Amino acid sequence: MADRQGDFSALEREIRDLHRFFQDWYNGAIPDTDESFQRFAGALAPGFLIVLPDGRALDREQILRAVRTENASHGKSGPEIRIWVEDVRLRIPPRTDGDLLIATYEEWQGDAGDDDSPRGRLSTGVFRIPPAPGTAPGTTPGTAPGTDVVEWLHVHETWLPSSIRPKGDGEDG
Q1: What is the pLDDT of residues 42-96, one digit of tens each?
Q2: CA 108/CA 43 separation, integer angstroms
């Protein structure tokens, strides 16, 4: 893959879009259907693992179950949740012929309408750009089911200190 900037653009778009999905899912703006949930399930590679800020590690099936049960968990009896991403950075550019990307980003969550509530986490993700069907690995980006051109392999989250505040206004862009 010669287009590193294109890879990073696709990666940043995927990170932001998936977090918009989470916001919409938790607020009930997306129906609880298999088709809707495929947006998340299709993005996670087999063997996916997430380490949460409290140190718990969840494999692909565990995180899918946890998120699936949280559809419309906000907004009905309390404020809607806002989730947005800031400061996406490509940390280790892949080899010229590689298909792996490593990025960090800040994920912010807070109650809608409450500018004092956001809590942030610094996340590091390992991603794969799968080859298009019928092509050799590392030559042409393909499309993972339910995603743009990126599969999520691993995420590690850690809480940001409360002294660190979001740079933006919660409107992910």
Answers
A1: 999 999 999 999 999 999 999 999 999 999 888 676 789 999 999 999 987 655 5
A2: 20
**Domain boundaries defined on the chain:** 4-159
In terms of Cβ atoms closer than 10 Å to its own Cβ (0-12, 13-18, 19+), residue 55 is exposed
Confirm if 37 and 18 have CB atoms less than 8 A apart.
no
Distance CA 19, CA 42 (A): 14
C-beta neighbour count of 65 within 10 angstroms: 11
Q: Are strands 119-128 and 151-159 parallel, antiparallel or unpaired?
A: antiparallel
| Through-space distance between the first and last CA atoms of the chain, rounded to whole angstroms | 26
Are residues 86 and 166 in contact, defined by beta-carbon separation less than 8 angstroms? yes
Residue 27, Cβ neighbours under 10 Å: how many? 20
What is this structure's pTM?
0.83
Residue 48: exposed, middle, or buried by beta-carbon count in 10 A (0-12, 13-18, 19+)?
Answer: buried
Q: What's the fold here for domain 4-159?
A: Nuclear Transport Factor 2; Chain: A, (3.10.450)
